[in-house]
């Protein structure tokens, strides 16, 4: 690649990996803050566009911050600098950090959040819980949420424990009978309870997601489906490293001089506090996102 890498190139490469047309109509993917013409030699990939990750990008001399979650999820009429998202925008401008997000387009893409989790649990995928008719013929599209079969049946409790070990957490929330035998599984990373009905329609034994609300839990109980809530953060954080690797690979294929690295120390904002007669214990919702080493795209 004879010309310098720009922010526009980063956006284009993400579109090649997880086309923005895969995104939900309400979503806000792509460039969040910055100049498409700005040159980029170092990229930081993270889950969230927070003050922490923007400052980390600036400290590590990264001109671009690629995140899963967007900075703006809805229209903004006023941008105040005394709190997010305005404070994040101000920090990004001060640090010369350009922010790009790949949200529900990545959720629905091959090697995206849902596909990565399904592969990790060994799911033989039967299909998506929700699909975009305009995208189903694209080989990069898998759909929003997936369902299929585990290699062998197991108890819901055993599956919950396996998930906890897989994503690096010490606690999960489970709705339903822990001893129920499960094999047909639906999953949707992030906040996926809007797809519970689809999981029930497919006769799934268990639904894996995050951000489960009280009344939705009762719906699951009434319908006889087990729900395993591994948390929003834990269900999506593991996609950060694969996304960084994919961007670095595209850069290498273009002959670009580009370093791509992952954020150090992003954490689940929730901590579970356990009390008993003798002591109390604070249990982190998930381990920190590992990574940080630069991957040269030379």
UniProtKB/TrEMBL annotation:
Origin superkingdom: Bacteria
NCBIfam families found in the cross-reference section: YbgI_SA1388 (TIGR00486)
Keywords attached to this entry: Metal-binding
Species the sequence originates in: Desulfacinum infernum
Lineage: Bacteria, Pseudomonadati, Thermodesulfobacteriota, Syntrophobacteria, Syntrophobacterales
Keyword Acetylation belongs to the record: no
Record's protein name: GTP cyclohydrolase 1 type 2 homolog
Family under the similarity heading: Belongs to the GTP cyclohydrolase I type 2/NIF3 family.
Cellular component per GO, a single term: cytoplasm
Molecular function, one GO term: metal ion binding
Keyword field contains Metal-binding: yes
Subunit structure: Homohexamer.
